[in-house]
């Protein structure tokens, strides 16, 4: 995406009416706005949201091309506003969403961290997300690795495009009630066949089309906690 394209998309995104997120009884510092589908972080419920404005549909087209999926399969656009110092805690995207997630970064750079494994064996990797770039999370990077955003240095926006695991009907709402440990078999990952020691990091495809292996960071750097309502 060019600087001009980013500027015009930012003008639209920055003017959106963002809403607060309450998770585990606390209000996160980042705020969000959903299009297409709305996901409630506390009740794990999906509801229909208003359609994406044309500028987001255009961005979705580019992101769908990058990921090699049909643009209409990216049913949700979640716009997140990160004020300086705000974070996104460790998570995997809910199993109600499909196998491919595409994220677009706007405004300023941040890191995205990845981890998996139990505490003593845990490895943490990170990639830099530069503004105007997009990343694709699929395979194990989507389903097995957790990801987080450590405190962002400056105001940043992201647009996360996600598929619904079941496009038709509303049966998947019951899946959304099942948090990760008990997620249905259909949500299991396609783990890369490569040996974990040779390819230890998650394969995250960035805009360049290069499958980059993330840089490993010390486990101590992996802690990202939701900041309080300050
Ligand atoms: O800010 C980002 O790009 C990460 C967004 C994310 O992880 C999510 O929306 O689930
Ligand atoms: Fe995520």
Automatic annotation (TrEMBL):
Keywords: Dioxygenase, Oxidoreductase. It comes from the Bacteria. The keyword ATP-binding does not apply. The keyword Oxidoreductase applies. Pfam families: 2OG-FeII_Oxy_2 (PF13532). GO terms for molecular function: dioxygenase activity. SUPFAM superfamilies: Clavaminate synthase-like. InterPro entries: AlkB-like (IPR027450), AlkB-like_sf (IPR037151), ALKBH4 (IPR032857), Oxoglu/Fe-dep_dioxygenase_dom (IPR005123). Residues 73-165 form the Fe2OG dioxygenase domain. This is Alpha-ketoglutarate-dependent dioxygenase AlkB. It comes from Plantactinospora siamensis.
